[in-house]
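RECORD TYPE: inverse folding
INPUT: structure tokens
STRUCTURE:
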């Protein structure tokens, strides 16, 4: 339980300060626990980044899965509505996973955590639509919104939603 609370605070700190700026001392202060306790659960800054990413990943997948129905089209449109809400409230600066990868491009463990996140998203889309090729198109649409949001904002979502409706047609 304490480990999850620390991960939640680390996620907030990395979201607020980025991945390169905060020192371990700043992360310790943000986590609200002693340095000893922080290091017990997350023994390096790398493990703190991974813990924060995994915590965010679980929250994001839970959000995207929350409104599932029996309709493929409704499920996918709901996911994109959730994406818009997420970008507005949780990720106005863009995808935190991609920011971590940009900050630590040569770190194998962080790269693996980001790849797992993206693979799980793709798997969720495939489960929702039952079509591997369509799932990849939807995944790329999702990633496009995540990347464009910090610069374009809501119009990126509106364009993605229109494209999604065209992809799905009358399904």
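DESIGNED SEQUENCE:
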């Amino acid at each position: 339980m304490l480990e999850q609370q620390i991960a939640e605070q680390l996620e907030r700190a990395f979201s607020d300060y980025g991945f390169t700026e905060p020192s371990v001392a700043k992360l310790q202060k943000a986590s609200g626990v002693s340095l000893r306790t922080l290091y017990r659960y997350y023994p390096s800054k790398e493990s703190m980044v991974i813990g924060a990413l995994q915590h965010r990943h679980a929250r994001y997948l839970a959000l995207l899965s929350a409104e599932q129905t029996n309709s493929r089209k409704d499920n996918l449109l709901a996911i994109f509505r959730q994406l818009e809400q997420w970008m507005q409230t949780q990720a106005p600066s863009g995808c935190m996973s991609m920011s971590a990868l940009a900050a630590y491009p040569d770190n194998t463990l962080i790269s693996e955590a980001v790849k797992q996140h993206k693979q799980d998203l793709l798997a969720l889309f495939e489960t929702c639509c039952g079509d591997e090729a369509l799932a990849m198109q939807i995944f790329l649409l999702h990633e496009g919104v995540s990347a464009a949001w910090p610069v374009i904002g809501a119009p990126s979502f509106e364009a993605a939603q229109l494209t999604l409706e065209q992809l799905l047609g009358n399904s």
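NOTES: DSSP finds nine helices and no strands in the chain.
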